[in-house]
């Protein structure tokens, strides 16, 4: 018993030292520069000011922002410079659409939607359904999904492919593809990387991998790995690129068991809880990897360690476990430039309320006084 207590004490000392070093790393970062500009969107009384799944487009020389209004089952189109709602497309949940959970806007003739029962739609600006397919393969675990800026559909001459999401088991495919909108053509793509599964800690924050297509390559951001994986257009791995920014951001790997979502309902043993909790609170999480085509630079958004205390993560509300966040900036050749610390609690990073614009990276501010305006500040990095 004494021996167990001794080793547990050593573990606590190690975690405390590790977290102190990581906290000092964050405190030594540069602060954000002053915002280059600001957008304010007027929000109606039935909608949340917390923007979900923003997609930035330029049409007819006008900057626009599209968002998923999840509560009202619609897409909202805003004119950014004016801050006004230009149009809403409402999808009747009692008809084919049901509850929309994701989308991707290509142009007014091609808007992809996916609902909670895995139906993928090709629609247009008038809300008309042009094509429909259920992309769930019953024998394959996972949830096909699309999110602008995170998980865009890949459209080629021969097929369309979308991510197979919520996967943390070795051997599970990460892609579903089809052609001619025919269910009999459905097939799976590459498996998720073993490095990702081994480093997955049973926490949903570590489940959200994302990717960007830049030229002839895909760049995949695994939330628990400091390497970004570069693939060719056939999803063959080209290289692993270490993008740690300032300081070492290697995560400790204790709990090596990928969990299925249904397994998370079964509370693990105390020792497993401590492993998961210590990983969650003392490790980094790489939320997203974005490309700015207007400035030819990349942004990697990082969540820093929370604390070194044991937390019952299966009981706490994750929205209340606030991390510090930073933005790492890389040039077009992925050479590190600078890393900037974000003020704690000021921006809605955990909601994914950010997007790339022609002027820089837009971050949504937390509202303290009103919920009828969504405020974005745009930052340009030297």
In short:
Residues 1-24 form the signal peptide. The protein is mainly beta.
- Provide the succession of SSEs: HEEEEEEEEEEEEEEEHEEEEHEEEEEEE
Overall helicity: 10-25%
End-to-end Cα distance, whole Å, is: 56 Å
Question: How many H/I helical runs?
Answer: 3
Q: How is the largest sheet built, in terms of strand order?
A: 1-23-22-21-20
Beta-strand share of residues: 35-45%
Radius of gyration in whole Å, from Cα? 21 Å
Average predicted confidence as pLDDT? 85
Structural class: mainly beta
Oligomeric state, counting identical vs distinct chains: single chain
| Largest sheet report | 5 strands, mixed
**Stretches where pLDDT falls below 50 for ≥5 residues?**
1-15, 254-259
What overall geometry do the principal axes of the alpha carbons give? globular
> Based on DSSP secondary structure assignment, what is the total number of beta strands?
26
Keywords:
mainly beta; Lipocalin; 5-stranded mixed sheet; 5-stranded antiparallel sheet; 3 helices; disordered N terminus; signal
Structural account:
The chain has 382 residues and is mainly β. Among the domains are: 91-199, Beta Barrel (Lipocalin); 202-342, no CATH class. The chain contains three helices and 26 strands. The chain has helices at residues 2-27, 194-198, 270-282, and strands spanning 30-31, 37-42, 55-59, 62-69, 74-79, 84-90, 100-107, 110-115, 119-123, 129-134, 143-144, 154-155, 160-165, 175-178, 187-188, 210-214, 217-221, 227-232, 237-242, 285-292, 297-303, 325-331, 336-341, 354-357, 360-364, 373-379. The strands form six sheets. The protein has a five-stranded mixed β-sheet, with no helix packed on it. Strands 11, 12, 13, 14 and 15 form a five-stranded antiparallel β-sheet that branches. It has a four-stranded antiparallel β-sheet with strand order 2-26-25-24, with no helix packed on it. A hairpin with a 4-residue loop joins strand 22 and strand 23 (336-341). The protein is globular, with a radius of gyration of 21 Å. The model is unreliable at 1-15 and 254-259 (pLDDT under 50).
